[in-house]
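Researcher: Final request for today, and then I'll write up notes for the group meeting. The sequence and the SMILES for zinc ion follow.
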Amino acid sequence: MASNLTVNGSRLWETILVSASIGKGPRGGLRRLTLTDEDRQMRDQLKHWAQDGGYRLSIDRLGNMFLRREGSEPSLPPVLIGSHLDTQWAGGRFDGVLGVLAGLEVLRTLDDLNLQTRRAIEVVNWTNEEGARFSPPMLCSLAWSGQASEEWVNDRIDKDGVRFADALARIGYRGEAPVGGRTVDAYFELHIEQGPKLDETKIPVGIVIGGFPSYGARVAIQGETAHAGPTPMAKRSNALIGAAMVAVAVNDIGWAHAADDAKATAARLDLVPNLPGILSEYAQLFVDMRAPDVNRLARMKEEFLAALPGCAERSRTQISVAEEWGFGVFDFDAELIALLRDTARRLGIPTMDLRSQAGHDAYHMAKCAPACMIFTPCKDGITHNEAEDIVLEETLPGVNLLLNAAVARANR
Ligand SMILES: [Zn+2]
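Model: Predicted protein-zinc ion complex:
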């Protein structure tokens, strides 16, 4: 077996351009929300590529799509390479897309070289990674890895009240394969960094050693509706004002820890009744905090909780944490990380270790299989924005690393 394989960069770029033409955003990016007509078109395209390559396509009951290139020992658990083809409302052309299409390029390169691996290699397109339509993000890898039931996923609703199950059926991608329940030998995900470190240092590959500890909370603020005109200041209990004070406090915590690469923000605000001339009766605010280590995050969380009584007092509202969650506290598989490092060294590709600051399907897959991630540079770290951009030459080292490492693993 050859030890230094390379993908066909121009073919990879062509497939990326085809993807970039499906669900174009108004400013050069993509608006391809999950389970929309645009998503269906992109899925049709992937299906077409699967047929062209002779890869067996299976679609599970949540619409996750698997393209399988058979190995010489079909009964062995496959190596899985994946990411997502859905995008944010104003998304870029590469977030998720690159990972799926790099996987496809791995299969095609093996065809070019007429190489059969021992284990099958499968490429997966996960449904609803972004969470831009159905909450939470990484919804279907969550279920696939056994951490949520199909029923629960099917009952998620979007902001227009459409059920996940109905949206999936409407585009014709409710498959018949069971959701998960089979063994995977290893999961690889290549993704743009979505941060500036690789671009700044001109190091082409980030080996993702684990997640960035993250804390989220939904804060409930209870006020009382009243007329915005005659109600005296001393009698006002405006939930909007309480929420605003919490938002500012959270932002201040982010700044206080910014030097250590920690972040905090208020990401979403819902108000009732949210009308001009009326003081709001109820508000909910979503808080998002991330830090490089759990101790730092614990301190930020303490500061956040300590700030709430003051915000409540000043705004004359009642403020409580209605829901909390956390993720990102884990390391990827040590053996796969070592494989990535050794392979990169052999190929002469410089790498740096990074922790992922965004959530990825690989986080969930790490719960049911050995998993790892490769980051590639994106311009100025811009992402979840139509201006998101990459340079092919800076991306190919990561794709070649994916190819060689996945093949090594599949021949194990
Ligand atoms: Zn992504």
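Model: Residues 52 and 171 are 22 Å apart (CA to CA). The first strand starts at residue 56 and ends at 59.
Researcher: Thanks, that's everything.
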